[in-house]
Amino acid sequence: MAHSLKIFCCFFFFFLFSTLSIIPLSHQLEQHPLDSLTPNEFIRVQAIVNQSHPTTINDITFQYIGLNEPDKQALISWLQNHRPTPITAPPPRQAFVIARINHQTHELVVDLSYDNIVSDHIHHGFGYPLFTFQEQNRASQLVFNHAPFLAALNKRGLKVEEVICETFALGWFGETKQNGRVVKVMCYYLDGTVNLYMRPIEAITVTVDLEAMKITHFRDRLVVPVPKAAGTDYRESEQKAPFGPELKGITVVQPDGPSFIIDGSRVRWANWDFHLTFDARVGPIVSLASIYDTEKQEFRRVMYRGFVSELFVPYMDLTEEWYYRTFFDAGEYGYGLCAVPLEPLRDCPANAVYMGAFVAAQNGMPIEMPNVFCIFERNAGDVMWRHTETMIPPDLITEVRPDMSLVVRMVSTVGNYDYINDWEFKQIGSIKVTVGLTGLLEVRGSKYTHKDQIDEEVYGTLLAENTLGAYHDHFITYHLDLDVDGESNSFVKSKLETVKVTDQTSPRKSYWKVVSETAKTESDAKIKLGPDSAELLVVNPNKRTNMGNFVGYRLIPGSVASPLMTNDDYPQIRAAFTEYNVWVTPYNKSEKWAGGVYTDQSRGDDTLATWTSRNRRIENKDIVLWYTLGFHHVPYQEDFPLMPTISTGFELRPANFFEYNPVLKVKGPNNVRWPNCSVSSSGLN
Amino acid sequence: MAHSLKIFCCFFFFFLFSTLSIIPLSHQLEQHPLDSLTPNEFIRVQAIVNQSHPTTINDITFQYIGLNEPDKQALISWLQNHRPTPITAPPPRQAFVIARINHQTHELVVDLSYDNIVSDHIHHGFGYPLFTFQEQNRASQLVFNHAPFLAALNKRGLKVEEVICETFALGWFGETKQNGRVVKVMCYYLDGTVNLYMRPIEAITVTVDLEAMKITHFRDRLVVPVPKAAGTDYRESEQKAPFGPELKGITVVQPDGPSFIIDGSRVRWANWDFHLTFDARVGPIVSLASIYDTEKQEFRRVMYRGFVSELFVPYMDLTEEWYYRTFFDAGEYGYGLCAVPLEPLRDCPANAVYMGAFVAAQNGMPIEMPNVFCIFERNAGDVMWRHTETMIPPDLITEVRPDMSLVVRMVSTVGNYDYINDWEFKQIGSIKVTVGLTGLLEVRGSKYTHKDQIDEEVYGTLLAENTLGAYHDHFITYHLDLDVDGESNSFVKSKLETVKVTDQTSPRKSYWKVVSETAKTESDAKIKLGPDSAELLVVNPNKRTNMGNFVGYRLIPGSVASPLMTNDDYPQIRAAFTEYNVWVTPYNKSEKWAGGVYTDQSRGDDTLATWTSRNRRIENKDIVLWYTLGFHHVPYQEDFPLMPTISTGFELRPANFFEYNPVLKVKGPNNVRWPNCSVSSSGLN
């Protein structure tokens, strides 16, 4: 999605060092090697980089600062020696920095143990780093001093003070010459609404060079009606009767408090233990997720690291101002940077606990992001397991265990779209990932006010007068570094195959059997999910259950989509990592971001697809599972002026990981009683 | 699934007329024409049928008694004239009865307005009616007086008092001669567990003629070890340490009570209004579901009638005692008959309200089924819609509406398997249907105690010593008689098609567009869901939005599965309705049960597949959507001795039904406050 969030960073600046009483993620006493960078570390990184380029201090912009994760083997061996008391030093703390220094992209590793620069490499390849909020903000302000733009507004009868602009990544469409760090600026009109996205000012294209911070091109192609403001505002305060039915108060209560413990970035709940950290590019990172095996009386490893690696959002509108809208929300805009503060009692239920995080501003200084995560126990009314036995007199036997789970939520609002990211931990051993899409569509202004007027391709649904909801896709690619009971894992595709019975040995003519194939190399593990029935497993080929089954976890897909653009189309070349729903790679520390490190104007030479072309061996190795879920979004009128959430996700579920049902011995819940309560409902605000 | 539920009916008998203080579904003052039969009506039906066959009273068994729904057009015109005051008489109350009278299957329509028999037809075709609990119970007791069976137990060293038997439908495997009403009886061993399903006594086959109520065949093929009892009991009272971690108390509270109103079988909540009734064969029936359109200030029709039409559960084990296990849980066993009383605070949350229902016993007398439904508002912590706007100074604009929904739940325990059926109504206009599968696997006893010993096809996973979890499928077929803003609807498949751009008019090489096809006849609407991208809609071609879009509802599939048996295999011929995930038929009152009326030993001559072979016109007609969801179930050790729930479902979601987002004007929730509470958690029991 496009966006600029120009105000947002300012908003967060107010919090800078003024609200440190909110306990940040990485503020615990004993720092863990996987913890996000602390405010102090951001400041030191900034100082070290600035000092290393002293003549150019004013020309340094920090496009990304994040933890340079320690070497995995070093971390694991440290962890194994770490408990109960640390006997070895932790791996060194390092930051990974992408900075523009004198108009070149530097990739630096800064060591925070020794306060020095370990490496400083200039990127000469294709593509540019993430945008900063500050440069997007400055770029989108330039138009207001650009006479042709003001004339264009005037021609349309629009008031300049009601115009809001934002920057859009340019993409790549086969140009051989590099464009430089250039963006397009598109504008919207408020004038009676806050829903700017429903009021696009169409057909004006402004091109801005971010390095020169100058407008390099301006075009006013034609005048298209700006859709009206009426009916677009979504604020409660602006709604008029008739209202929908009101519901009586409902809430969740935990009189004895939550059952989870947050200790710095470590979260423990029920049988789960994991770390939760935050990154400007990818948002939440769940690491070192282990589950306690009651029978074995030990924690067993499940996932070393899981996060959203990239989001690809191509629009299907080929008009001049739209064709290039093929966004990479993580690599271009920063999925973490776009996280928004969660609204208590609305974004998360009453029993939620909130956590903040820090990101670097363009000048390298830390910015606090309050309430970026919420963590809560979900009590949705579902059943974890049950049975009623009717066959044994004299009574019915009924055993039921309600389902409880732990949810970690972050919302990233990448301009118009709000993505609700849930990592859900279940007592049965599942990690369930859900993403909900809501917020505002990108709509195109149009002359049409009724479908019957349309006799050309308009690339979308007529949602309201002069308002076309453009067809588009969302592909979200997850990096899932599973370590099922240890690092050495294999990927197994258990295909369900029909067997025909032709030898009269059975009255049946057919059945299905399970044929398991272990992927030897990366090409064996590229899977487009479809009607072929198969169970997809990550197993540990070195560990077996007592019955002799390999211990494993199973990927249960939710709704999936495959790209419909042709493979030779430029956006699809850049997003070739969406071509398959499943990929498996051998662990490689540098392979984190499926669309490559430099996604802005990337050319597809550094993606999951190119990495796997080496066809490396993946059997009984430390492997990473990549999963892409997706939606093709055909807008409907219900999505106007704001979309109800639509969700999908996937589940990682134990499959012969435990010897038997791991929740068999979970006791039934206690009844929660409220004696002597006087109760009232009152307005939230 | 196999089952007999021999005790269950007895259990319910205790409630017969002794607990009528529990308000049954159909006990409201003004009866609605779609209400389930009342106890009094069951009694009258019994009396009328018995009187009509006076010489044969002792030979009458009632295999099914349910409401004979009124003619749809008559009902709709009555409804249209009914409000605000009834000006016409309601359609006549009738019962549909399937009875065995003198060993013939009679299909009777009994009129309850005139207390007479409207029709009495003898079924001479293939297939037999549902089993009654009573006859299954009697059949499964016969073995205990059968010397060869007792000898077989003796040979195995098993105590007869620890043996539990149940009856299994025979299926059909190409026999040309009819077998008569015959079942197989299989037995299990308790002796230290209540989990009889984990202790099958293999290789003994007893065949019982239900009409003669005699054993007609006995075979003891070989001795297979009975799996041990240890580790199979799932009752909390029988578990031993180490236990899983305990969670602190959590509950949902609604200090002002629920927001829904139940008036007889009518349920109103938020913008929804529907009827909820119960049927012995299919369980819950949701009818006359309408949604209030705040803008139009009127209720608009969505679904005339929706229910589970059939369940098909074929096992993939071809051994002599297993090959025929290809169950039709609704048509053979009664999905409603197998409903179990819901356990408050465990099967449903603290804010649930419970409802009972009635079914007919074999003698035609009503049996009350208490707590067969629960209804509750779900407060799962999800977000209905949200947006944070960062672009407009000086503050962030954040608007969030938490998601609330209304859930109607029934659990049907068809022998070993527990199906959790949810019909969920959402304020956004969606009807979301979920089915959760839990309970006990059917396992086969085996000599194997480790996977490495196995070098033959065993048709399943070795779950524990001597215990093979058989591969099987679950297909659940829903009858969804949508009436989107009226009866005349069309089925539209909007395909997303790639368009290649070769004329240099765009820097892009491709995009996708939407190509909508309206199904003219039934064959156009048979769809195997797969990777082809399409939106599936039921639209009203006579109603358009202000923008000119046809008003519609969209089917959003969840996980689907297609049959893997060959189409010419006998069980698949009987279950040909599972061949496609989606079918559309013109409304026909008699086409309710996708597997045919007489499913026991059916031959596939009366299924959804045969009905549609007429290829009737379905465009702009009163149409019915049939949707089949499914699982291929490969058991894992976590499913032993009891399976954690695995769920899937689908959503019916408004698609250009409303002019704009129907929950835009839903106000944010009130904060629920609890002043002056003293709080404690205490044991449930």
Largest interface: A-B, 202 and 201 residues
- CATH architecture assignment of the largest domain in chain A: Distorted Sandwich
Secondary structure category of chain A? mainly beta
How many distinct helices of chain A? 8
Modified residues (2',4',5'-topaquinone) (chains A, B): 417
Domain Copper amine oxidase N3-terminal (chains A, B): 129-226
Domain Copper amine oxidase N2-terminal (chains A, B): 32-119
Family (chains A, B): Belongs to the copper/topaquinone oxidase family.
Keywords:
homodimer; 685 residues; Nuclear Transport Factor 2, Chain: A; Beta-galactosidase, Chain A, domain 5; 19-stranded antiparallel beta sheet; 4-stranded antiparallel beta sheet; 8 helices; disordered C terminus
Can you tell me about this structure?
Chains A, B: It is an enzyme of class 1 (oxidoreductase). 2 copies of one chain form a homodimer. The first copy, chain A, is mainly beta and 685 residues long. Chain A folds into 3 domains: 37-123, Nuclear Transport Factor 2, Chain: A; 133-238, Nuclear Transport Factor 2, Chain: A, CATH 3.10.450; 261-484 and 542-655, Copper amine oxidase, catalytic domain (Beta-galactosidase, Chain A, domain 5). Chain A is globular. Chain A starts with 5 loop residues before the first helix and ends with a strand. The interface between A and B is large, with 202 and 201 residues. Strand 9 of chain A pairs antiparallel with strand 9 (251-253) of chain B, so a sheet runs across the interface.
